[in-house]
Amino acid sequence: MGFLTFIFSLLLGLYIFGLVVKLLFRIWITGRMKRFRQGGGGSFHTYTWGAGGSNNRSRARSEGAVTVEQSAVQPRRVNRNVGDYVAYEEVGEVAEKSASKEQ
Fold this sequence. Notes:
Layout: H1 2-37, H2 56-60, H3 91-102
């Protein structure tokens, strides 16, 4: 009888815990939505690609216009002399050579 009471208490506790977590999550999401509607509140950031945050140029272009902007070429960070040269042989050639030598 004590085991069934334990199982029942455990299941009841988990159910109540789930309800509390669900309620707290709903309150948290509602607060985030209010902050977002009021202008972000500092926790939401907008990231832009390539324009560096200036949307004035992209708005001035006509709709459907395509432009290509090339970025500056950056110098190599790794010297070409770094690393070892590894000589290798083709596996297929090695297998053919050893098979022809055996015959």
